[in-house]
Amino acid sequence: MASVLRWMCTTENSEGIPAADIDDSTIVRSPTTASAHYGLPVSLQTSPDAKSSRAELSSMRTPHNRRRGRASQSLLVVARWLGNAEGMFALRMVIMTIALSIPAVLSSSAGFYYRENGLWAVIMAQLTLLPYTADVVYGIIVRVTGTIVGGVVGMAAWYIGSGSGPGNPYGEAAAMALVILPFMWWRVFSSLPLMPAGVMMGITAYLVVIYSWIDMHNEPYGNPGKGYEIFWRRLTLVLIGLSGTFVTNFFPKPPSASRHYRHQLGKSLIGIRDQYALFVSNWEAPAQDLHAVAEEESLKAIGDLLSISGPVKLTVFEFSSSNFDTHALGRVCQLCMLIQQSVTQLLIYTTRLSDAQRQSVILSTEKTKENMVVEVMAVLTIVQQALKTDDPLPAMLPTPLFTREVVFTRRRIQKVLDNSEFNKDYTMDNEGLRKYVVLLNALLQMFAALDELVLVVKSAVGETSNIAILEV
């Protein structure tokens, strides 16, 4: 039975089917059993020079699914545009802005709206509303804290510089000279997530002092007051705007940042899977553009992962029903970057090894055998689906990959070392040996990271379909 299965796996490899046509170069693979059965073209052949990794990767990412009609495609595009996170964010912004601006156009409330500077509430609401709930809650906390601290500092500066009088310009200048120093330091040296707090502190402190001075020396409309009166009015406007943001964010459904990051991590695993497939298909005869494609894909993937590695920490402020907490998402992001780095090394060093060196690696690892490729693809796909759907993983998976690969590689390397040709070609001073070690390390590092990724995901979503194995 094992021989039959091995024969089936080694005879059903897809070649001869046109994969893609980019820059007048077509990648062709030899026909599979199913292709020959259904009469697909067999005689298409191209020279090795026409092979393009970019075209092959594009073919891998084309689903070749059922084609929809033009009308259904248009409706689907419009529905996705309105229903995605960006479309819902724009709709929330419009509704919230109109709702908070209605008192400004009503004759019964226009005077009150202008006198109390109701526009500040609209501005605060617009600045705080963001596409995902975690960012919104964090923005509310930061802005409320910054407003309170800035108001207290502004009141202290006003009362120190003016006392109980109308205000002394020299005293206010001396007080504000000290106040501006920490705010300027915060603005220049603070991290990006904490910058809104510094901005709110500086704005509130200066508004308290400036409006207090205007009220004492001019006769503005509405007489805003001085010191504490300015502070509580400013705080009230901020709270009104933030309340509008908080209410708007939860209708019709609060957008989950955790779900968004899980989907992003799942997409990164899809990209890793495609690059690993590109590595396997180009191992024996690498394309000329494989090195450039590997670098481009790696830079894009690492850039996408780095862009969410920081915001993932803000999911601690989100009330999410997902099984993935902040620690699990952060760990998955780190492991995805590690796996991406390993796959990039495999692709790059594929182009640096000679044909004889690649054959030696195949003999020592057999990394391109069908069973190993299937196991890696299966693990990547199952973990990606678990990230996307939040469903538990099956209890039985082809893991740990690292342990089995180490045991297998030790046996194979011992056989290869017995080969006199290998001992003659690979010495400690030989560059080929160093490339071989780097490639082997990248492979083992990828397997170890995949095993840890499975454990992290299982600890978050759990496992199901447990199998009781009875020992006889």
TrEMBL record:
The chain crosses the membrane at residues 89-114, 136-158, 170-188, 194-214, 235-252. Residues 112-243 form the Integral membrane bound transporter domain. Residues 45-62 have a biased composition (Polar residues). The keyword Membrane applies. It is a multi-pass membrane protein. The keyword Transmembrane helix applies. InterPro entries: BRE4-related_DUF2421, Memb_transporter_dom. It is found in: Membrane. One of its GO terms (cellular component) is membrane. This is Uncharacterized protein. Residues 45-68 are annotated as: Disordered. Residues 252-464 form the DUF2421 domain. It comes from the Eukaryota.
